[in-house]
Specification:
- There is one protein chain.
- By secondary structure, the protein is of the alpha/beta class.
- It is built from eleven helices and 20 strands.
- The strands form five sheets. It has a ten-stranded mixed beta sheet with strand order 8-7-6-5-9-1-10-11-2-12. It has a four-stranded antiparallel beta sheet with strand order 14-15-16-19, with helices on one face. A two-stranded parallel sheet has the order 3-13.
- α6 runs parallel beside α7.
- The longest helix is centred in the middle third of the chain and has 23 residues.
């Protein structure tokens, strides 16, 4: 099927899911459960795929997945920052429920608590082979690394690819006042061993190809049993770099080249699935951890008109592209405009594979009814927009979003940077109370609280529910149902 890009307005304004319903019979996991391929990009914006309106380059492989599966237009990251978003993906929880927030730095003494059950552990209980190829970022201490959290094998970097002692020009940092002085060379691991040190932009340019080859090899080696293959690509998080085969190939500069290579990677994985006879029994999910890091200018992506970006709880920070495909099981060419989130992937995968959810509370909702075409309505009606350690910055119910008063990042006060160098951004800009109707105003530009006081009251009550459950540092609410972060045994914080 030929792929095509719909205008942004059509993507976000439609209020119904465009697929046919199947009989609402009870669905049970098949005797041969599906393989799970989860492709998670870093800082890829809502408008960075051609099936979501990108221009200047094409993403034909991801577009093909959308044409053969379902494109989600109202899909939210758990939080708009690295570690927190990955926590939500791997556990099905709001990250602040389990003490994880922000972006962990190298040599952190905290990480994902072993009392939590990761998606890898969930699937291992069903006999799945599990592999991760890419950025982990849930704790780089050996106590927290992927093979301690359910993965059989790991190839990748332990945290973000800018956590290295290299300047924005790709040369060794010489500024004695630079925060990069805290970092050592970026390690590329195979399980617990260092394969190599990533020290230059040329080294960075090899990462996408290397991870792709390792992922394809994993698929080939595990084709006779169910597997979970997780590829959290370290890019297009800065510093971006494309291999020689893709450099200079698009009209959108280096950023377009990087996205094109990522799309090539998706195509290689899809070809591997087909070549090994796995194409029709694999659920493939493509999405992103948060929106673009806007102050990097032409080295950052697009929100397609959504407000702000990474590090903010406006839609440009939280709303991300998402495509899912399970050939022959999911309806093809479907568009789902229902509210959904990365934290919903966890219980959805559990349902589709017959895995038992942990006894501990999670926050995700099972979306299998949407995927299987049994319903047009999402089980998710609300969403809590947290940021920082535990700041409740907005709440959502259906099309309505109430932004709560908070200090936070804005990209509007200064011009963006260029060619890998960041512009300035303001971190403690005051954001006042505001009400937005996201169906009519996805760019969050028109505050309508004066016209809809009853909706404001309703959403303030929802915010109070969130504070009672999860807490809120902005109102000094402790929350009743938070769980501790993991700590390295023997440290003061572990006692």
């Amino acid at each position: 099927m030929k792929s095509f890009a719909l205008p942004f307005g059509l993507l976000v304004v439609l209020s119904i899911s465009l697929f046919s319903l199947r009989p609402a019979s009870t669905w049970t996991a098949p005797q041969s459960p599906p393989n799970i391929v989860l492709l998670f990009m870093d800082d890829m914006g809502y408008g960075d795929l051609s099936c979501f309106g990108a221009t200047g380059y094409q993403t034909p492989n991801i577009d093909r997945l959308a044409a053969e599966g379902m494109r989600f237009t109202n899909f939210l990251s758990a939080q708009p920052v690295c570690t927190a978003s990955r926590t939500g993906l791997m556990t099905g929880c709001y990250p602040n429920r389990i003490g994880m927030y922000g972006a962990l730095f190298p040599r952190s003494q905290t990480g994902l608590n072993h009392d939590e059950t990761t998606m890898a552990e969930l699937l291992k209980s069903r006999g799945y082979a599990t592999g991760i190829f890419g950025k982990w970022h849930l704790g780089d201490n050996p106590h927290f690394m992927p093979r301690k959290h359910g993965f059989d094998e790991y190839v990748g970097i332990p945290y973000s690819n800018d956590m290295w002692p290299t300047g924005y020009d790709g040369k060794p940092n010489t500024d004695p006042n630079s925060p990069k002085n805290r970092f050592s060379a970026l390690p590329l691991y195979v399980n617990e061993d260092t394969l190599k040190l990533v020290q230059t932009l040329d080294d960075q340019s090899e990462i996408t190809g290397l991870l792709t080859r390792k992922a394809v090899d994993f698929i080939q080696r595990n084709k006779r049993k169910p597997f979970f293959m997780y590829l959290p690509n370290p890019m297009p998080h800065v510093p971006i770099a494309a291999s020689a085969a893709f450099r200079g190939k698009t009209k959108h500069g280096l950023y377009g080249d990087v996205i094109t290579e990522i799309d090539w990677s998706v195509g290689e994985i899809m070809r591997a699935l087909k070549a090994n006879g796995l194409d029709k029994n694999t659920l493939v999910i493509v999405t992103s951890d948060n929106g673009p890091w806007y102050n990097f200018g032409n080295h950052a992506g697009s929100t397609a008109g959504l407000r702000e970006g990474k590090g903010t709880t406006y839609e440009g920070g939280n709303r991300v592209p998402c495509v899912m495909r399970w050939t022959g099981t999911m309806p093809a060419g479907a568009v789902c405009n229902e509210l959904s989130s990365t934290i919903d992937i966890y219980p959805t995968v559990a349902k589709l594979t017959g895995a038992t959810l942990p006894d501990r509370r999670i926050d995700g909702h099972d979306l299998s009814g949407l995927l299987l075409g049994k319903t047009a309505q999402s089980p998710r009606t609300n969403f809590y927009y947290y940021y920082g350690k535990n700041n409740l910055e907005a709440v959502r119910r259906g099309e309505w979003k109430l932004v709560l008063p908070h200090p936070g990042r804005t990209y509007h006060a200064h011009p963006a940077g260029m060619d890998g160098f960041p512009g300035k951004n303001v971190e403690n800009h005051p954001h006042p109370l505001a009400l937005f109707n996201l169906q009519r105003d996805p760019g969050e530009r028109y505050d309508v609280q004066a016209q809809f006081p009853d909706i404001v009251t309703e959403l303030q009550a929802l915010a109070n529910t969130a504070r009672e459950d999860l807490g809120d540092d902005l109102t000094k609410s402790p929350g009743l149902n938070r769980r501790p972060v993991g700590t390295v045994p023997g440290t003061a914080s572990a006692k």
